[in-house]
User: Fold this.
Amino acid sequence: PRANHFVRGMLKEWGRFGLLKGGAVHPPSQYVRRTAQQRQCPPAPAAVLAIPLHGAGRRYRMLDTTVAVFVSAEELYGVVHPVLAHLETNAPAANSYRVDIVEIADVIFILENGCILGSCTGRHRLAPLLQGIIGLKALRDFQYVIALHAAALVSADGVLLLAGRSGCGKSTVSAALLSAGWQYLSDDTILLCSNSLNVVPMPYSLGLKRGSWPLLAGRLPHLHLLPVHLREDGKEIRYLPAP
Assistant:
């Protein structure tokens, strides 16, 4: 009965999105994209806006979106760049944004056009927050029909998708398979494109929570040397740089 309930609910939603034969067809963009008015964020205090930025910025590309990141202290690049280094680019993209990372006392603000996209206390919380913001911007700009919460890896025999809820072990298994010679696509999100249903990965750095560290110690002997970050949900995480 429980499975029947979920399946019926899914079929109803799929029909509403025009995915089933005979269902109404709607442009995927009206469900995926949100307008600027819907993405309003609070303005930053004057004291935050007055802090100067340093350097020429670094550009990171996810899917069809590029985000240029500027910081108020060069040391902040040392916190976020190892997590985003595989996304660094100088190539133009269809959609481009600029975000500023400003640190005042122990509080860090991520700003866009003078508005606060996010904030955190302490540098150990910054990388997960910024990676999430870049991912959300990329999702809003990309045309897709459905997103799967799944890891994906490639071997000579094909692609393996590991779908499941948060904390079920997707990233742990992915890291073990990487150490065994598999190639990496994503450890969190897989998109199915509109019309073609082709698979497109969102290649976040592979995030390994504390519970996986002892399990992977034999396969990844350098894992204990990676910095520890703190996610918004309070979980400690180490990022294995994506190939």
Remarks:
- Confidence is low (pLDDT under 50) at residues 29-38.
- The radius of gyration is 20 Å.
- Residues 126-141 form the longest helix (16 residues).
- Residues 36 and 237 are 32 Å apart (CA to CA).
